[in-house]
Automatic annotation (TrEMBL):
Protein's name in the database: Aminotransferase
Alphabetized InterPro entries for the sequence: DegT/StrS_aminotransferase, PyrdxlP-dep_Trfase, PyrdxlP-dep_Trfase_major, PyrdxlP-dep_Trfase_small
Positions where N6-(pyridoxal phosphate)lysine occurs in the chain: K178
Pfam families linked: DegT_DnrJ_EryC1 (PF01041)
Gene3D superfamilies in UniProt: Aspartate Aminotransferase, domain 1, Type I PLP-dependent aspartate aminotransferase-like (Major domain)
Catalytic residues (UniProt): K178 (proton acceptor)
Species of provenance: Amycolatopsis japonica
Keywords, alphabetical: Antibiotic biosynthesis, Pyridoxal phosphate
Length: 368
């Protein structure tokens, strides 16, 4: 079996043992060390570690002090955490359709979705490539919107040299399968001193000094144990990313010209960090997406469907007053991508022969 993902954190053993021996295992100096290393990756002044990527998004929205009815514009093609975080923070969600080339929100659709209640633009940098920040950042500025980037899948990615998470408030996930992991964890990045301060207070029950509460906060803290797991990966992130990029290049060369298959693109000026390598299985392919997924699984090639449906197209979200007017038919690109997307292994632990096997098997079952 060639798995879709491999978690390898063995190089964290010494640091984790150091924390265990210290007896101070909750948030402490290791979290600070992790935050400093992360801020240099995201090119931001501050990195605030939290306990997962979902709470990173919730805290980022909460720190903006939105009023009831204020709106966040985001992508309908994303992991459910994006939507759940907005709802948890009590904001109203508006969706903008995506583009087929980068799987992220289409600036033209965003412009159409903005109303006089819109306060936040939340692009999702899906699969490891940023959204079109060259158009989205000026659009946000023009309408006075804050940008919260869902950078959960895009640590180390950049747009015209500017790192993901540095365009506004960056929210990263460090979940086990992410390019950098602490098992569970998240990070919020910002250049804004005041916002960073608010986030640190919010993270710790709204408390600045012991039992001095400034806001109704939460426990969003990361532990030193988790931070210790992530530090070695940040130190060798360039190497890990380069391995993903080399694997993606080889997959794309090998799969080029397979009938009915669209291979993922790296758009000009964007550094793609390949959290996922996602092909689109078009209507003229020899097998449907689901048939291809089943055929690959049967032949020992791990694969994943991220994501099978538009994010709000589930009973639990219907008639939610915080998701007004959301209709599946208004998002044709997201709907067609959700029906065609299939991710193949691209992680840094693939061997040359694994890559050959993936390429040969996909080509063979699609009759290439
Ligand atoms: C796009 C996206 N947003 C948010 C999250 C939430 O992160 P977490 O699972 O760490 O809460 C994830 C990852 O799971 C994600 O892929």
């Amino acid at each position: 079996m060639i798995p879709i993902t491999v978690v390898d954190v063995r190089d964290a053993e010494d640091l984790v043992v150091e924390v265990l021996r210290s007896g101070a295992i909750a948030q402490g100096p290791m979290v600070k060390r992790f935050e400093d290393a992360f801020a240099s990756v995201s090119g931001t002044k501050h990195a605030i570690a939290v306990n997962n990527g979902t709470t990173a998004l919730v805290a980022a929205i909460q720190a903006l002090d939105l009023k009831p009815g204020d709106e966040v514009v985001t992508s309908p093609f994303t992991f459910v955490a994006t939507l759940n975080a907005i709802l948890e923070a009590g904001a109203t969600v508006r969706f903008a359709d995506i583009r087929r080339d980068d799987f992220a929100i289409d600036p033209d659709a965003v412009a159409a979705a903005i109303t006089d209640r819109t306060k936040v633009l939340m692009p999702v940098h899906l699969y490891g490539q940023t959204a079109d920040m060259g158009k989205l950042a000026p659009l946000a500025a023009e309408h006075g919107l804050k940008i919260i980037e869902d950078s959960a899948q895009a640590v180390g990615a950049s747009f015209q040299g500017k790192p993901s998470g540095s365009f506004g408030i960056g929210c990263f996930s460090l979940y086990a399968t992410k390019n950098v992991t602490t098992a569970e964890g998240g990070v919020i990045t910002t250049d804004d001193d005041k916002l960073a301060d608010s986030l640190r207070v919010l993270r710790n029950q709204g408390m600045r000094a012991r039992y001095q509460y400034e806001v109704a906060g939460h426990n969003y803290r990361m532990t030193d144990l988790h931070a210790a797991v992530g530090i070695p990966q940040l130190e060798k992130l360039d190497q890990l990313t380069a391995a993903r990029q080399a694997n993606a290049k080889r997959l794309s060369e090998g799969l080029a010209g397979t009938p009915g298959l669209d291979i993922p693109q790296v758009l000009p000026g964007r550094e793609h960090v390949w959290h996922q390598y996602t092909v689109l299985v078009g209507p003229h392919a020899f097998l449907s997406r689901d048939e291809l997924a089943a055929a690959l699984t049967e032949r020992g090639i791990g694969n994943g469907i991220y994501y099978p449906k538009i994010v709000f197209d589930y009973d639990c979200y219907r008639n939610n007053p915080l998701i007004p007017d959301a209709k599946v038919e208004d998002f044709p690109v997201a709907a067609s991508v959700a029906a065609q997307a299939l991710s193949l292994p691209v992680h840094p632990h693939l061997s040359e022969s694994d890559l050959d096997t993936i390429i040969e098997t996909v080509r063979e079952v699609l009759g290439a």
